[in-house]
Amino acid sequence: MKTKAISSIFVLFAIAAGMASMAPDAFADHAEVAIVTVDESGFSQTCAEAQGGSGCYVPVTATVDVGGVVTMTNTDPTGVHTFTSGTVDGFAPSPDGVFDTGVLMSGDAFEWVPEAAGEQPYYCMLHTWMIGTIIVQEAAAEEHADDHAAEEAAAAEEAAAAEEAAAAEEAAAAEEAEHAAMEHAEAEDVELMVMISDAQVMGGTQIELEFNVLHLNYDLTATQNGEVVFEEKGLHSMELIATHQIDALGSDENPIDVEVVSLGIGAPGDEDSWTGPVGQVTTAKVVPEFGTIAMMVLAVAIISIVAVTAKSRVVPRF
Ligand SMILES: [Cu+2]
Q1: How far, in Å, is the centroid of ligand 1 from the Cα of 167?
Q2: pLDDT tens, 160-187?
Q3: pLDDT tens digits for 186-216?
Q4: Which of 46, 66, 267, 294 is the most buried (most CB within 10 A)?
Q5: Domains of the chain by range and CATH?
Q6: How far apart are CA 269 and CA 148, in angstroms?
């Protein structure tokens, strides 16, 4: 028993040491920097600085040299996230097109090589309270003395590990980044993303749709056992989030199938001026068995009218 207690203490030390080496400063290697997402940052806003948190990305402010490599990894086992360059005002995002990881499933990573010095803000398209900053500096700028030596060593180790993990993807990632840049140039505003979440509310099911665009017109249909339990055509979402109440409960045996079909983006009733992708965006099986408050991400999907949709990661998720 005593041995066990002692070894537990060792484990604790190891964990503490590990955590210390993960302190934000340890990442401040300027040639390479790794940014990760905070666990459960998609469900709770407590990580957000507005809520007094320390940031939903770690480190929340990262520094890298021009020509260096920023590796962005979704390390959150509970959700999907993006690193999208630009700013967000409340729920209204303004992507600036410098980089966009697209939807990163847990464990996915993306590399960005900054080409110009300056401050680059970014956010998560799916959880707009998640924001971070990358400070890009000239490579020759500020090589301070050895007060950072230990940290740099730790960071280098960290970076080496990240590099190893990323090495296999590197060539592909570079190519992908190029494509992504092209895609952005051509298709900035026509990519449509819808995320479906659900919760059990008032004996029924609350469906929450989260969009990456304002003013989406769409049809929403829900069926259970082949019967339509909810059907609304020509819905219009003024905001990035729309909530619908369905008077039925899904279960493992009798799930509710939800389908979202995009009709286009624009003012309601003015179909001729609508833009953006049209067609089925996503479907999801709704089984709200996890309490009344938690929203569960059921599906994330992106459709796009450009030819390079293969690069846009259509990710239906059940
Ligand atoms: Cu997120």
Answers
A1: 25
A2: 666 666 655 565 555 555 554 444 433 3
A3: 333 446 677 766 666 667 777 778 777 778 8
A4: 66
A5: 20-187 (2.60.40.420), 192-312 (2.60.40)
A6: 61
